């Protein structure tokens, strides 16, 4: 009998979890597994804010895909997916011949969503991948270097605007407030000239988080110099900075750096391939399959599942992407063997921890509120756990975070 072709698109948390679990479950002769990813490395998206601020080297954030896949069972293709042809069961790639699949897993992750705000795409940075994070770090450093050498000082060069006080925005600010004093020392810049401004359209920082913990986070960041502009919407981004409005008052904030951290969507490949989707996210069936396409699984940030308790979609997280990868691998094994029953996906949320730099954090874990050192240590345990689940103790030893404070 012909071996089924399993094609997995994307080597992020969802895709790699699917592949590393599936390679343990099935034998070489049971299926052909192909993994496609833009780069030959995986990056920890949840650490990108550290690389963007320059508090963690970008090499620490990524590792070779070859280190975690079993190459006797999985063929890796480094390429960019352009489109999925659902009728023909084919994946179109930029530089290789189309791939044909019997079962497909779409795990192409997130992209920045600018909601049509003028100028954001052109003039703001976003923490979307390793190279985008490196660009932010380099850009901020360049602003400090230029300021220190220019004769007519332009203080706005040293203004950094972060758009969004959600999870990514706050974690980035937490790193930035630690990095800026270092930059000031390195480039002989007076710290009083630097402004770090966070602009958030919602009426609160970290919407949905426990209010006491939010207050803790805001106090920590304000003490380290962050100015919060809450209930304030970014109307436009320009080469000079941003234009914001609050209660019909319009204000221009001149800034050398604008980082947009207020929105993500699923991959554009989802829209271009004709899936029924909302902002690149497919509302999957209980077994993680795209409606009307029983041979196509969607996991991670490209999948949308509804939390029945709140009747709202679960936020896209690495935690959910990895759990989905595990269930997806089990379901693929059932289909490949034609034995057993498909397992429905139920998120098992253990909690959320939001870092405020390398030595502080806030979170709710197993229903308990934590903050400060305890939360910060917990964050590193979570980071190391993600490495362990995909690459075992060897990967933890290579890339893990052991300096707990
Ligand atoms: P990703 O991890 O984004 O992986 C997608 C992969 O597909 C990447 O390797 C990418 O290169 C590849 N790819 C994309 N397009 C193509 C293409 N066309 N062709 C080929 N390859 C392609 N979540 C948490 O649970 N906890 C946190 O603390 C947390 N912190 C975060 C901090 C930051 C700064 C950010 C940005 C996100 C954070 N998240 C966190 C969210 C989390 O990172 C995402 O939910 C998670 O990465 C989604 O996993 P995924 O497998 O869907 O996609």
From TrEMBL:
Its cofactor is FAD. Residues 5-325 form the FAD/NAD(P)-binding domain. It comes from the Bacteria. Belongs to the NADH dehydrogenase family. It comes from Anoxybacillus flavithermus. PANTHER family: 64 KDA MITOCHONDRIAL NADH DEHYDROGENASE (EUROFUNG) (PTHR42913:SF3), APOPTOSIS-INDUCING FACTOR 1 (PTHR42913). The keyword S-adenosyl-L-methionine does not apply. One of its GO terms (molecular function) is NAD(P)H dehydrogenase (quinone) activity. One of its GO terms (biological process) is aerobic electron transport chain. InterPro entries: FAD/NAD-bd_sf, FAD/NAD-binding_dom, NADH-Q_oxidoreductase. Keywords: FAD, Flavoprotein, Oxidoreductase. Gene3D superfamilies: 3.50.50.100. Pfam families: Pyr_redox_2 (PF07992). This is NAD(P)/FAD-dependent oxidoreductase.
């Amino acid at each position: 009998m012909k071996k089924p072709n399993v094609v997995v698109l994307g080597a992020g948390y969802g895709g790699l979890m699917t592949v590393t679990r599936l390679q343990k479950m099935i034998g070489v002769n049971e299926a052909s597994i192909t993994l496609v990813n833009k780069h030959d490395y995986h990056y920890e998206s949840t650490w990108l804010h550290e690389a963007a601020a320059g508090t963690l080297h970008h090499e620490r954030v990524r590792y070779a895909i070859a280190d975690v896949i079993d190459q006797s069972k999985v063929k890796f293709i480094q390429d960019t997916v352009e489109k999925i042809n659902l009728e023909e069961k084919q994946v179109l790639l930029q530089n290789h011949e189309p791939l044909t699949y019997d079962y497909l897993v779409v795990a192409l992750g997130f992209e920045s969503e600018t909601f049509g705000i003028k100028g954001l795409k052109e003039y703001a940075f976003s923490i979307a991948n390793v190279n985008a994070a490196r660009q932010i770090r380099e850009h901020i450093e360049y602003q400090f270097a230029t300021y220190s050498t220019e004769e007519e000082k332009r203080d706005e060069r040293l203004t950094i605007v972060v758009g969004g006080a959600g999870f990514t925005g706050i974690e980035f600010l937490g790193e930035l407030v630690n990095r800026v004093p270092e930059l000031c020392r390195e480039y002989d810049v007076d710290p009083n000239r630097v402004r770090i401004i966070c602009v958030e359209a919602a009426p609160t920082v970290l919407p949905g988080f426990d209010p006491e913990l939010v207050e803790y986070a805001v106090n920590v960041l304000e003490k380290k110099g962050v100015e919060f502009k809450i209930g304030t919407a970014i109307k436009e981004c320009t080469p000079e900075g941003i234009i914001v409005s609050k209660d019909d008052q319009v204000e221009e904030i001149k800034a050398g750096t604008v980082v947009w951290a207020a929105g993500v969507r699923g991959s554009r490949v989802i829209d271009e391939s004709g899936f029924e989707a909302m902002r690149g996210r497919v509302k999957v069936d209980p077994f993680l399959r795209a409606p009307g396409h029983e041979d196509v699984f969607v996991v991670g940030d490209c999948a949308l599942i509804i939390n029945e308790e709140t009747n709202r979609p679960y936020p896209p997280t690495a935690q959910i992407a990895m759990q989905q990868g595990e269930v997806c691998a089990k379901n693929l094994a059932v289909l490949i063997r034609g034995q057993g029953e498909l397992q429905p996906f139920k998120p098992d949320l253990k909690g959320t921890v939001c870092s405020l730099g390398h030595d502080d954090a806030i979170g709710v874990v197993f229903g308990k509120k934590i903050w400060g050192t305890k939360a910060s240590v917990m964050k590193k345990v979570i980071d190391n756990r993600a490495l362990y689940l995909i690459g075992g103790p060897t990967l933890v030893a290579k890339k893990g975070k052991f300096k707990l404070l």
